[in-house]
């Protein structure tokens, strides 16, 4: 039997070199009956324009500002930011007991943005044409570049026409992400994402940076560069591929249909992409999101996040980083049955049933050119 045939049949653990952690894989559990919670399939009959939506062009937001009649993307400072630029400083007080060891806290300042991907209320990234995803990537890039130190060769003056404002401080890290669907906590279906910029590096990218840096020290090459080259050779976990980016179900994936989009060239951050690479990224994002929707013929929920070099800090950290995107969707068996991280997964380690190879094969065999519901009406008149 081949390795694939053996691992498709036995319980086993897989190592994640990005996090330095392990996951339990139990492929035989896909045969068990499901009598647990079921989600409500997402609705797909949204209007092009919703007068009650806080993100649609020309509408009033909750704090009283009016959105412009934007034609492509629109950026504004989050009205309910998770971190603030102006707040009281906090210094851990000295104590005579072990509080400084066991009760640590640190203040975090930062700036949060919302990015509307399109003026059309009824679209998702799966519906937006590839040529309209490119401006989204350019907006992500402009946001990142405008928050770099001015000494960086990739620094850009904040683009006021895009809604990008001057940061109040030099922040360390920028997390760009999108939550799609009510199952992922998204409170507004208008196509949009968020950007949180903070004074420290968050836990997840910090783990990745440390492991990528250690790999580079030991092997003299980039972890994700070696990994993406290997996956292209193996082919088993590839979902979509072009000259610039590969989409794949990672060997160590936790979620059933989790994917990563990895730049085939060792690029540290978005501003380093060429025009051709931006188009290549847009094409792969379009293909992956269409395949997701076609899998269970529903508006497939997910959280997507971009991991790239920190804005500021250790030059070695930046050189170790490799631009990639994580797509983490919760659905397991159908549009109504989702994966839960509970029990063993909370108390011991993550576990999955369907193998990444099986997930990749299912996604690979789906159309990435058209979405099951057909073309939606878009672009409301200004």
UniProtKB/TrEMBL annotation:
GO terms for molecular function: UDP-glucose:hexose-1-phosphate uridylyltransferase activity; zinc ion binding. Pfam families: GalP_UDP_tr_C (PF02744), GalP_UDP_transf (PF01087). UDP-alpha-D-glucose binds at residues 29-32, 62, 78-79, 179, 185-187, 194, 339-340, 344-345, 351. It comes from the Eukaryota. It catalyses: alpha-D-galactose 1-phosphate + UDP-alpha-D-glucose = alpha-D-glucose 1-phosphate + UDP-alpha-D-galactose. Residues 8-202 form the Galactose-1-phosphate uridyl transferase N-terminal domain. Signal peptide: none annotated. Its EC number is 2.7.7.12. Zn(2+) binds at residues 53, 56, 121, 190. Pathway: Carbohydrate metabolism; galactose metabolism. Its cofactor is Fe cation; Zn(2+). It is an enzyme of class 2 (transferase). Gene3D superfamilies: HIT-like (3.30.428.10). Keywords: Carbohydrate metabolism, Galactose metabolism, Iron, Metal-binding, Nucleotidyltransferase, Transferase, Zinc. Binds 1 Fe cation per subunit. Binds 1 zinc ion per subunit. One of its GO terms (cellular component) is cytoplasm. Residues 209-367 form the Galactose-1-phosphate uridyl transferase C-terminal domain. One of its GO terms (biological process) is galactose catabolic process via UDP-galactose, Leloir pathway. Fe cation binds at residues 208, 307, 324, 326. The active site is at 192 (tele-ump-histidine intermediate). InterPro entries: GalP_UDPtransf1, GalP_UDPtransf1_His-AS, GalP_Utransf_C, GalP_Utransf_N, HIT-like_sf. Homodimer. Belongs to the galactose-1-phosphate uridylyltransferase type 1 family. This is Galactose-1-phosphate uridylyltransferase.
């Amino acid at each position: 039997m081949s390795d694939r045939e053996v691992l498709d049949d036995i319980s086993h653990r897989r190592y994640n070199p990005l996090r330095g952690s392990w996951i339990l894989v139990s492929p035989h559990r896909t045969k068990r009956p499901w009598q647990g919670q079921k989600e409500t399939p997402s609705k797909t009959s949204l209007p092009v324009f919703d007068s009650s939506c806080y993100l649609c062009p020309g509408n009033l937001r909750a704090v009283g500002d009016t959105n412009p009649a934007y034609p492509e993307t629109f950026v504004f400072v989050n009205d309910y930011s998770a971190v603030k630029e102006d707040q009281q400083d906090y210094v851990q007080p000295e104590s005579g007991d072990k509080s400084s060891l066991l009760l640590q806290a640190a203040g975090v300042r930062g700036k949060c943005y919302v990015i509307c991907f399109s003026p059309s209320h009824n679209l998702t990234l799966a519906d937006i044409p590839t040529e309209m995803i490119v401006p989204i990537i350019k907006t992500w890039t402009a946001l990142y570049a405008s928050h770099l130190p001015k000494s960086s060769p990739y620094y850009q003056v904040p683009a006021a026409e895009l809604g990008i404002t001057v940061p109040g401080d030099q922040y360390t890290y920028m997390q760009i992400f999108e939550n799609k669907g009510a199952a992922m906590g998204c409170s507004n279906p208008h196509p949009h994402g968020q950007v949180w910029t903070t004074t420290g590096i968050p836990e997840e990218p910090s783990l990745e940076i440390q492991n990528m840096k250690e790999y580079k020290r030991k092997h003299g090459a980039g972890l994700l560069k070696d990994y993406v080259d290997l996956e292209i050779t193996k082919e088993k976990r590839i979902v979509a591929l072009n000259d610039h980016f590969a989409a794949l179900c990672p060997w160590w994936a936790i979620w059933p249909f989790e994917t990563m989009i990895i730049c085939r060239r060792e690029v540290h951050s978005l501003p380093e992409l060429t025009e051709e690479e931006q188009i290549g990224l847009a094409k792969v994002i379009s293909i992956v999101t269409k395949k997701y929707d076609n899998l269970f013929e529903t508006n497939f929920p997910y959280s997507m996040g971009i991991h790239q070099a920190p804005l500021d800090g250790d030059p070695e950290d930046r050189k170790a980083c490799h631009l990639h995107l994580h797509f983490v969707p919760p659905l397991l068996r159908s549009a109504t049955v989702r994966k839960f991280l509970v029990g063993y997964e909370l108390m011991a380690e993550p576990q999955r049933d369907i193998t990444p190879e099986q997930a990749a094969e299912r996604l690979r065999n789906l159309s990435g050119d058209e979405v099951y519901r057909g073309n939606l009406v878009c672009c409301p008149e200004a």
